[in-house]
Design goal:
Length: 80
């Protein structure tokens, strides 16, 4: 699951671990975990959450580029 957010909102929410962006990211991580668990029992693939700053997205951005330049997963899950 890939989601884009405004760079200024990301900086504040991820740093302070609060606000709408942070709460949605926590919910998305949990959703991906639950889907991955269900898929493991039912022949599906794992899901991962990627939170991307809007300024990383342009016409030339591939999906692979966006995933590589997402907010580091460790930064999102630390102290959840």
């Amino acid at each position: 699951m890939c989601e884009t957010k405004a760079a200024n909102e990301l900086a504040t929410s991820v740093k302070n671990k609060s606000g709408d962006v942070w709460e949605k990211a926590v919910a998305a991580i949990e959703y991906c975990r639950a889907v991955t668990e269900w898929n493991a029992d039912n022949g599906g693939k794992p899901w991962t959450y990627a939170l991307v700053s809007h300024d990383e997205v342009n016409w030339q951005s591939s999906f692979g580029y966006l995933v590589k330049n997402r907010i580091p997963y460790e930064q999102l899950v630390m102290d959840m």
